[in-house]
Amino acid sequence: MPLSPMDDTLSHQTPDTFDTVFSSDRRFYDRYYFNCHPSADDLFMITGMGQYPNLGVTDAFVTISHGTTHYVVRSSRELGSDRMNTVVGPLGVEVVEGLREMRVWCEPNEWDLDFELTFRGAAPPLHEPKGISYLGTRQMEETSRFAQVGTWEGRISVGGQEYAVTPDRWKGARDHSWGFRPGVGDPEPPGIAAKIGPQGRLGFFHQWIPMQFEDYMIKVFMQEDHEGKPLMQEAVRVFNYGGKEEHEDLGTPKHDIQFKSGTREIEKAVISFSGSDLMVTNTPLRTNYLAAGSGYAPKEDWAHGMYQGELEVQGLTFDMSDPDVFATMQGLNETLCRFDASNGDVGFGMHENALSGIYRPYGFETPDAVAP
Predict the structure, then answer these.
(1) In whole angstroms, how far apart are CA 157 and each of 6, 15, 56, 114, 164?
(2) What is the tens place of the pLDDT at every residue in 83-116?
(3) How far apart (Å, rounded) are the C-alpha atoms in residues 219 and 368?
(4) Strand, coil or helix: what is 198?
(5) Of 78, 110, 286, 364, which cross-links 359 as Cys (Cβ 3.0–4.6 Å)?
(6) Calpha distance 224→228 (Å, rounded)
(7) Beta partners for 351?
């Protein structure tokens, strides 16, 4: 158990050094996520970084949807024992002020994508309910996460174009999650999960929506099984710094989603709440396909926490105007939306939509079913 710089802080939670986490589960992770947009459809950027102490790996990525191209730069290295080192190849994250200000960057490279950005929180971060799930008798997930909206400042260069990022237009959300969940590291042998898996999870409906308005965030989180049975529900209004201090519980969130023909991608969504007369209409502006190259959808050559060697840096591009390419990108869609609230307020932000397998409330009766 080597010592690291974190061991010199008064932050220990266990008798072990910081390079040892509470669980020996190989899937333990600690991850940053950020999205950035100009409150318009010019581009939509997502970047993130994770550490996987029990796998000895840290990795990072950036994906940008720009024009008809999906750009990716991703990197992975051996973690070592210094978890305060949050640079992976050209990508880096710096905590400038905890819960308030973060800096992220991608150094210039051969793949025509680089940036230097600072995120400043507009509202306090919201700590979500803990995520816990089981498959048979095995606990598959135990995670904590907080989410925050804010503004961006700096620059982005992609596809030969340079964008000056100013906080009057450029907004976004971030989260920080940690714990353990599926989709981390090299695939495990299925074992008995090959027998109980199909019965244990016929389908999965996941909607994660941080809506950013001028004076507040509405955070909606919904997860349901294949029959529409709620697994997780959250709807909270969080006011900006300097506004109301108390969060407003909006009750149970309800969804009415229309999907693009031939896909499971959102065409329009209306979100309402059991505890409020407020309704929000989500109109898509641009989608970032997070399943394409970021590691969130494990592939044979790349997944979060998959060992790539001492250091590996890669760049990818996908032509989203090609129907055959587009078909392979579906699965975890980060859709930049305009939010029109029934009280007249207008906001922008991301509607994360993951809908896999069977989901009967919207007529997806088979795992490969799509909207008519």
Answers:
(1) 34, 45, 32, 5, 9
(2) 999 999 999 999 999 999 999 999 999 999 999 9
(3) 30
(4) helix
(5) 364
(6) 5
(7) 335
Nearest to 343 by CA among 227, 239, 213: 213
Give the model confidence (pLDDT) of 269-309 as tens digits. Answer: 999 999 999 999 999 999 999 999 999 999 999 999 999 99
- Between β-strands 248-249 and 346-357, what pairing exists: parallel, antiparallel or unpaired? unpaired
pTM: predicted TM-score of the whole model, two decimal places: 0.96
Pick the closest to residue 371 from 207, 256, 259 (CA basis). Answer: 259
Spatial separation of the C-alpha atoms in residues 355 and 164, rounded to whole Å: 35
Helix, strand and coil content of the chain, in percent to the nearest 5, comes to 5, 55, 40
Q: Which alpha helices (H) appear in 98-213, and where do they start and end? A: 193-200
Q: In sequence order, what are the residues at sequence separation of 6 or more whose Cβ sits closer than 8 angstroms to the Cβ of residue 212?
A: 122, 149, 171, 172, 173, 339, 347, 348, 349
Q: Report which residue type is found at 167.
A: P
Residues whose CB falls within 8 Å of the CB of residue 260, separated by 6 or more in sequence, listed in order: 266, 267, 371
Determine contact, residues 34/102, Cβ cutoff 8 Å. yes
Question: Left, alpha or beta for 57 (phi > 0: left; psi -120 to 50: alpha)?
Answer: beta
Q: Which two tokens stand for residue 252?
A: 């149970």
Domain boundaries of the chain, sorted by first residue: 5-362
Taking domain 5-362, whether its CATH number is 2.40.240.10 is answered by no
CB 352 within 8 A of CB 174: no
Tokens of 191: 């074992």
How far is the C-alpha of 336 from the C-alpha of 127, rounded, in Å? Answer: 22
CA distances for 180 relative to 10, 27, 63, 101, 177, angstroms: 25, 5, 24, 26, 9
* Cβ-based neighbours of 363, under 8 Å, separated by 6 or more: 369, 372
Q: Tokens 């940008």 correspond to what residue?
A: 64
Distance between CA atoms of residues 250 and 231, nearest Å: 18
